[in-house]
Amino acid sequence: MRDADDSDLSSRSDARRARLSSEAALIELGERLLSLNRRQLDSLQLPELLLEALQTARAIESPPARARAMKRVRRELRDGDEAGIRRQLAALADPRASVASAESQWLSRLQAEGSTALEEFLAAHPAADRQRLRSLLRNLERAAAAAQPKARAALQRALKDAMTPSAVDEPESSDAIEAGEPSGSDPESTRG
Questions:
Q1: Which of 14, 87, 97, 113 could pair covalently with 117 via S-S, beta carbons 3.0-4.6 A apart?
Q2: What pTM value is reported for the model?
Q3: Would you give the DSSP letter of residue 94?
Q4: Among residues 92, 119, 143, which one ends one of the domains?
Q5: What is the CATH number of the domain that holds 80?
Q6: How many domains does the structure of the chain reveal?
Q7: Residues 104, 111 contacting (CB under 8 angstroms)
Q8: 163 and 127: one domain?
Q9: Predicted confidence band at 96 (pLDDT cuts at 50, 70, 90)?
Q10: Residue closest to 75 by CA, chosen among 97, 91, 98, 52
């Protein structure tokens, strides 16, 4: 007889539905991986056995044989890091999404850990404006509940700026532009 506090109340049909759903997700992931070109697959840094299974499945044209090859791909996906592969695929599809994800992770860490996380961020991104980030973090920590969303958004923008490669690579002629000199001309030739 079952105990009254038995926490496993799922039925066999629920377990079957979950298994079928998981298998359908693996099929979809396998098909997505199969649709990628060789360069994209190499950038994902997949396990060697999975790459081999994908190459074999790609070479087969017969539908029944290809279905068998895809079973092998699904088995390798099941044994590997399915969630990690999905994250890599998402980053491959939209590189900005991976930056936004990393940005939100850093923001959460900064809120939770404070200056310790800030030092780690600055070590990872040495070109970041240390003083500005410290000031924004301090503002976020001291902000009243009503002002916290604004302080959080300001810190998030600063993190995004620090993590975006174009923010680090400023043009060499920015000093001339800030000084009010026309670009591409010699200061001597502008005197009349």
A1: 113
A2: 0.45
A3: -
A4: 92
A5: 1.10.60.30
A6: 2
A7: no
A8: yes
A9: low
A10: 52
Confidence label for 71 from pLDDT (cuts 50, 70 and 90): very high
Report the chain's mean pLDDT, rounded to a whole number.
77
Residues in the chain: 192
What Cα–Cα distance (Å) separates residue 119 from each residue in 31, 105, 111, 157? 42, 15, 13, 18
Residues 74 and 106 reside in one and the same domain:
no
Residue 46 backbone phi and psi in degrees, to 5: -80, 155
Rounded to whole angstroms, the Cα distance separating 46 from 83 reads 12
Say which residues have a Cβ less than 8 Å from residue 54's Cβ, sequence separation at least 6. Answer: 33, 34, 41, 46, 73
Task: Let me know if residue 157 belongs to a domain.
Answer: yes
Residue-number span of the structural domain to which 136 is assigned: 95-168
| pLDDT level of residue 65 (50, 70, 90 thresholds) | very high
Domain for residue 186, yes or no?
no
Specify burial of residue 137 (Cβ count, 10 A radius: 0-12, 13-18, 19+).
buried
**pLDDT for 112:** 82
